Amino acid sequence: MTRHGPLNEFCWMDLKTRDPSGTAAFFSAVLGWEFAVDETDWRRAVVFWAGDHRIGGVSDLAQPVYPPGLPAHVAYYLAVDDVDHRTAEAAEKGAQILLPPFDAGDQGRIATLIDPVGAAVSLWRPQGFAGWPVSPPDDGGAFPQHMVLACADPERARHFYTGTTGAPLTRATFLEAAPGTTPQWELAVAVGDPDRVAARARELGGELVTVTGGTSRLSSPEGLTLRITTAPEVSPAFLETDSFLETDRLVLRPVTPADAPDLLALDNDPAVMRYINGGWPTSAEDIRDRTLPRLLHDHACTGTRGYWAARHKGTGAFLGWFELRPLDDHDPAVVELGYRLNRAAWGRGYATEGARALIGKGFTDLGVRRVTANTMAVNTGSRRVMEKAGLTFLRAYVDDWPEAIEGSEHGEVEYELTREAWEATETEARGR
């Protein structure tokens, strides 16, 4: 049975090298990846694992299929729902198509392009294989954590990928690169002992140097690069003593996979989804492949997951979820506030109560400097919650959504709350 992994996420990497054995030896010694011939593949391709998870392959650039002089590099594959459609969208948005869509045997359908900021990427509809772990395992292995694109215009890049795939890339960070830097996607992996990684890399002819964004860059002797982050000493879903956030009526905790049935019911209420997708139903596969990976993503800069399940303190009933998510995975300064509650919870003040609690935690514990929130201009209910939670209107704007829904012609609105404004309000309230 064909099994597809999460859409709109990077899910595979290919080490393209002129020294396959040396490359395997380097990354095996430095990161603990295990390389072997895939005996189940008729091509006997070399693949590698992080723990029990197959995460990439190795290609020999000496093979005649590659042009002479092509430098060693890492190719990354972004899972999409329809390679032909998404490639056409990419071309319309300024991408250069290097390899038009083609069927790669039993591996799925692939296209390769250069995005408008100059970075190479392959669009892939995998077949028979799900790719990287949906949520990086918390067992110390050098697993794929997230992708980083450093380029001259990160906002242009972010907009391109959102428009091309139809949704934000939930495990990708866009950073501004130093002038003259060649734009390229890089995988970030977390390691427990960066000093050991650095020493081992240098012993084998590679290097580890500090770069922007709170990471270091690991380079193999041939110039294949990855980003290295420090694995947290505890689970990023909060310390055990701080796993829950309680208000007068709510218990908020990080979302877990066990919430899937409640999330499915929530997203299948047309009224709940009215301003999200026009009220269309959501499948269990969508929850598994798209919703959960987004809600389970850990943010190292805040030490949290960005989404919180909300339950009634008295009855334990599932009410929905709240979002307090950093816009940059490596910087907690700006976070996005969001909420999605079932209809039984509407009109009772739960949204405002939960939003205020998370805003307070963000400003006091998580290093947040500014909270932003966005919604459709016609979504008066959500706008009232933003205002009651202390946010003020910032701007109205029109975004280029892949599928228009009723009311989207009136545009979007953004609200904000700065730490200084919040502190002033809190001080005033305490003085009354």
UniProtKB/TrEMBL annotation:
Domain VOC: 9-126
SUPFAM superfamilies the record matches: Acyl-CoA N-acyltransferases (Nat), Glyoxalase/Bleomycin resistance protein/Dihydroxybiphenyl dioxygenase
InterPro entries with a match to the protein in the record: Acyl_CoA_acyltransferase, Glyas_Bleomycin-R_OHBP_Dase, Glyas_Fos-R_dOase_dom, GNAT_dom, N-acetyltransferase, VOC_core
Membrane-crossing residue ranges in chain numbering: none
Pfam families: Acetyltransf_3, Glyoxalase
Domain N-acetyltransferase: 250-420
Name the record gives this protein: GNAT family N-acetyltransferase
